[in-house]
Protein 1
Amino acid sequence: MELDKELKLLRYDRELTQEFLAEKLCVSVQTINKWENGKCLPDAINLLNIAQFYEVSLDDLMKNEIPNALKKEKVKKSRFRWFSTFSYIFRRN
């Protein structure tokens, strides 16, 4: 599960509102909303605060976020290789 879905699930499971969580983490409701909708990610300090608040490990919280980031990086590299090959072919002619 991606981090945004994990954050939303943790909050729903505990029947908390975004307002309550925002107050406990000292952030705005808009920030909680952005995290849960995948528009941005919490910084390191907020990740630690979230993990402590929900009493979960950072490993559990981030369990699928790193593999997703690596997949995106591989896609970028493969596009670059294709472009390099394509431009090389047309330079030769």
Note: The chain has a mean pLDDT of 81.
Protein 2
Amino acid sequence: MNYLKRAWLSVTRRKGKSLLLFIIIFILSNVIAGAVSIQQATQNVEKTIKNKMGATVTLRLDYENMKDGDYENIENLKMKTITAVGELPYVKYYDYVLMGNIGSSGLKSYVSSMIEDNGGMGNDEIASYYAFGLRGVQSSKLLPLEEGKITMVEGRAFTEEEVTKGKAVTLISKELADLNQLSVGDTATFTNYIVDYEKNEKKSQTDYPLEIVGIYQNKSTQKKVGKTDKSSDADRWNQAYQEQTAINQIYVPNKIVEETRREQAEANTSEVSEEELSESIGIGEPLYVLKNPEDLEKFKQEAQALLPKHYIAYASSDNYDNIAGPVKSMSKIAGYVLIAAVSASVMVITLVVLLFLRDRKHELGIYLSLGEAKVKVILQALVEVFIIALVALSLSVVSGNVLAKGLSNTLIQSQIEQQKNDNGVSYVGLDELNDSTTIDDVVEEYDVRLTPSYVVLMYVIGLGTVLVATIVPTTYIVRLNPKRIMM
């Protein structure tokens, strides 16, 4: 009789043992399926969110890994380094940005309603001297505009001449324009205040009348702050602060920012050389936009080789780990569960199959004494287990996915509750790198579902586990001596 037919008859006639093995594999497969479902869902949401965050990269100091003594030996970034990194094949275009702050005696700054309701941030006189953020540009190709992070509502972007000559022009946000009843063509007067911090008073001030050539809408401010009850206080405050910062940010040529920073440096430093003054002003923070987000890690590795000590390439999507703590934590737990479930499955199925084979010692001895090859007897045992395993795995692919969906939702909510009191520290610097994505956005994208890749992966892991668990006890068949069995 063909060994495949014998395997089928063995499974159908030994209903009790077949059912027991089915239940064991089904239960273990559900645990494996649940862990695989959660891991795939977290990988998918990470890929989706990081793509939404974009592939915008800057070069900055690695503050997290620097020691106190390292700050004394920091080498400033040089223009040739910025250019060398910008010439890497992964870069679509790049710019370097000077950042600063400025105030105004005649213009109102925007204050987020949430911050205003809670006493405000920056309502005192000294803080009002820095109410507006200066975001310098060195290229007429405005990267936030090119990447769709802002859209022009009225007017235009800068011309190459305006940027290179540092003309007194600016772009302001729509909200700021509405708040101060400004339009394209108007002149908005900003003021650079020099403050004596020891006396906590104003030393001097310089007015900067800037012509408004364009009014923009920031994409991130179109999101509603604290949009669901699931948002932690840290999330809501972070969003409110980002909203306020984005609306109060004005775009100007780098030379204007450089001038304001030079005034600050000269006023607060006595007998300083031009070289030292230039170093204190800096050359700005470089900003690179990659052609493809998937090239991010390659870009980081190659850029790192060009950077001075203590510098790193920091991407907008690097903040994902801070935002998606609950999802990342759940993925880690699922990984441990998967390893434990596979290990337990191998041990349990190995033990059960070995016991079943010992009970069938005489049956196997008869096959061997009739001249059946040991290989075919082993294949019969494998086929018997695989028939049962295929049915159990096919059912667990669906049931495990359903269980994972309910369990993961519970786990995420539990993790969010634990994170509510966390500060959610994120990178403070270029607005292009401070994405407004929150845990709400991550949870919204998180979806445990049946996908072809999940089904294939589940069968590979499940059948691979069953194969390993079955091969081990089949060594028992190899050691069988038919003569001794039949005596």
Note: The CA atoms of residues 382 and 471 lie 8 Å apart.
